[in-house]
Amino acid sequence: MKVAIVCGTVYGSAEEVARHAAALLRAAGHETLVNPRLMLPDLLAFEPQALLAVTSTTGMGELPDNLMPLYAALRDGLPGELRGLPGGVIALGDASYGDTFCAGGEQMRELFAELGVSEVQDMLRLDGSESVTPETDAEPWLEAFIKHLG
């Protein structure tokens, strides 16, 4: 299965998680696309069969700058070819920020719902104030995600 990994990163942790996810997906026999500067034409040209978003949260609960162009293009265009695809979201944040903890991930979840992407399992919230290895902390969630893809 072709899995596109959409990545929003500020300091690199989300990109590391995304690249680790890609390695696990490839090891399970899936083809992956992961690029923190991914644009909509490249995403659609890949013809994904599943979507995974890995994003941190910045500022007052916003998505990272590198993800905003793709987010806006998806939100404004609502490409029909993504409707019905299985998907999931891994959100990185810091629980000490209270209400904005993993808000970037929540935005991607809402966008996936608008696009008609079918969430195959609940969003994973990784707390940066507790974890120094988010990529390994994500492995159990990713293993379940891979099983959902078949």
Give structural notes.
This protein has 150 residues and is an alpha/beta fold. It has a single domain (1-147), classed as Flavodoxin domain (Rossmann fold, 3-Layer(aba) Sandwich), CATH 3.40.50.360. It is built from six helices and six strands; from the N terminus they run E-H-E-H-E-H-E-H-E-E-H-H. It has helices at residues 13-27, 40-46, 68-77, 103-115, 134-137, 139-149, and strands spanning 2-8, 31-34, 50-55, 86-93, 118-119, 124-127. Strands 1, 2, 3, 4, 5 and 6 form a six-stranded parallel beta sheet that branches. Helix 4 links the parallel strand 4 and strand 5 (118-119). It starts with a strand and ends with a helix. The model has no long low-confidence stretch (mean pLDDT 96).
Report the biggest beta sheet as strand number plus sense, adding barrel if it closes.
6 strands, parallel
Shape: globular
By helix and strand content, what is the structural category?
alpha/beta
The low-confidence runs, each spanning 5 or more residues with pLDDT under 50, are none
| Helix percentage range | 40-55%
Q: If you consult CATH, what is the topology?
A: Rossmann fold
The CATH class is Alpha Beta
Calculate Rg over CA atoms. 14 Å
Oligomer, anyone? single chain
- Annotated CATH homologous superfamily: Flavodoxin domain
Q: What's the topology here?
A:
Layout: E1 2-8, H1 13-27, E2 31-34, H2 40-46, E3 50-55, H3 68-77, E4 86-93, H4 103-115, E5 118-119, E6 124-127, H5 134-137, H6 139-149
Parallel strand pairs: 1-2, 1-3, 3-4, 4-5, 4-6
